# Entry
Amino acid sequence: MGVVMCKTKINYKKILIGSIVAMITPMDSNGLLDQKSLKKLVDYHVVSGTSAIVSVGTTGEAATLNYKEHIDIVRATLEIASGRIPIIAGTGSNSTAEAILLTNDLENSGIVACLTVTPYYNKPSQEGLYQHFKAISENTDLPQILYNVPLRTGCDLLPETIGRLALLSNIIAIKEATGNLVRVNQIKELVNHNFILLTGHDATVVDFIQLGGQGVISVTSNVAATQMVTMCNLALTGQYAKAYELNKILMRLHNQLFIEPNPTPVKWGCYRLGLISDYTLRLPMIPLTEFGQKKIEEALKIARLL
# Structure
């Protein structure tokens, strides 16, 4: 399916809007995919009204999955979703060639888009970043969502480079996870009106939308899906006072979910709420400390989830 065909069939402005979850990958005690919990999570987001699911992104522990597992989990998520909710696949890598392979292997799978993170560890220049994303774009018809999260990757995709990349036909959006609200207008001035701006920073999503963004790819949504949907919808309809009030209730949760490295806290939160059957992570990620558990428990209670 070509890009033009996709865009005539899918209105991405209606899909990539509001609360999109950066979904965890549930694992059993052996560290393998827990299919039953995966179904429970997908059903939870369908019922909650989550706009879309990102499968195997950072929060989905992409960094500790092998290539086959990565593809298999995306396909399992698609099968369970069965068209009830759009699925976006995390297909980023610090190797351009591997990112292209991941993207190509999911070309006709049914995903609506790819979320492609800046190459981590390599610390490429802005021209290197441009050439990386351009090469991926030229080797697929799948719509691409750029993902900028400098604190994790060690490089920052600057607005000027985003503006250049937005000229490529199948680069349709960005997940801007710096938390720097100045970036919203900087990017908007350099892209056309169809380019979609999503934040990766839950605590400032209302501000981000008020400045002209369309929504969030959210960690908090893993445990507070309905609340995140409601908050985003309020902001998108101009009801900012109500949206800010709800955000105040969720603020402790937004912050405490990063008290230890993501996705350790949010995965424990899902376990505490009964959304997954087992609380397993792969090394080098380790279980949430007792102190961390206490803090997440408190935040869940303040958010009225317990």
Observations:
- Residues 3-240 form a domain with the TIM Barrel fold (CATH 3.20.20.70).
